[in-house]
Amino acid sequence: MPTPKPESAIDRDQRKALQKIRDFLKVRTSYDVLPLSFRLIIFDTSLLVKKSLTILIQNGIVSAPLWDSKTSTFAGLLTTSDYINLIQYYWQNPDAVNRIDQFKLNSLRGMSAPSGPTEIEKAIGVSPLETASIHPGKPLYEACRRMLETRARRIPLVDIDDETGRAMVVSVVTQYRILKFVAVNVHETQLLRKPLRHLNLGTYKNLETAKMETPVFDVIHQLVTNNISSVPILNSDGVVTNVFESVDVITLIKGANYDELNLNVGEALQKRSE
């Protein structure tokens, strides 16, 4: 039996730092991550898609919890993926563009309803999106595990009202907020000195890329097909000059102006500053 290779100093520091982070996440709750005061915007599932876009843009947000007022229950989280599904539907069914303005949020996804996927989900061949949530009193470690399992970038916090016994949405915790919370409070993060490539963290093969001349529709198809949130934009020399993100889609279709989707990537990225 071969002799085990001695643990290097950098590996030892890495292991200790990761254990400290795990221990920290197990004793802190999602409540601890929330700021002292914040504003929470919740959409009713009967809201028109067009109006939801306007509200997102006006408030500078890219997602919002969904609430079914008919059943008084939490219905999921509205994200850019829902709008991208709508764009895919429009692309496959151009004759339906006149009906898109009348679509309500509950038409974008199955909302975990017994009837299953909606017309849009069936038409573009995608499964209903995850409606994961977690109680704010649960350890942050559990929230991270749930986000990892569902590949979600944010997770709604849903509590139970003591008086009514019904669910209520408290807030939404994002990956960024959790990482910032860890970075500020766990000093051992300074021991994380191993390069990303050595950790096999990230994607290094079969990368999806595009150019400034690539049609936006093609990039959206890349996002959906590969279940990714961004596509690097390369110049003629193969150098990364920008990144097209899924959130860029919201800017393009504001005001339900779907003609903007006929732009190429370069033209679309110029819309960011507007």
Spans of at least 5 consecutive residues whose pLDDT stays below 50 are 111-115
Number of helical stretches of at least 4 residues: 11
Secondary structure: number of strands: 8
Give the helix level as a range of percent.
25-40%
Report Rg: 21 Å
The geometry reads as flat
Overview of this structure, please?
By secondary structure, the protein is α/β, with parallel strands linked by helices. It has helices spanning 9-27, 30-33, 49-59, 80-92, 97-100, 119-124, 140-150, 175-185, 216-226, 248-252, 265-269, and strands at residues 43-44, 64-68, 73-78, 154-160, 167-174, 210-211, 230-234, 240-245. The strands form three sheets. A three-stranded mixed beta sheet has the order 1-2-3. Strands 6-7-8 form a three-stranded mixed beta sheet. It has a two-stranded antiparallel ribbon with strand order 4-5.
Summarize the structure.
Helix content is 36%, strand content 15%.
In terms of topology, how is this protein built?
Blueprint: H1 9-27, H2 30-33, E1 43-44, H3 49-59, E2 64-68, E3 73-78, H4 80-92, H5 97-100, H6 119-124, H7 140-150, E4 154-160, E5 167-174, H8 175-185, E6 210-211, H9 216-226, E7 230-234, E8 240-245, H10 248-252, H11 265-269
Parallel strand pairs: 1-2, 6-7
Antiparallel strand pairs: 2-3, 4-5, 7-8
Provide keyphrases for this structure.
about 270 residues; about 35% helix; flat
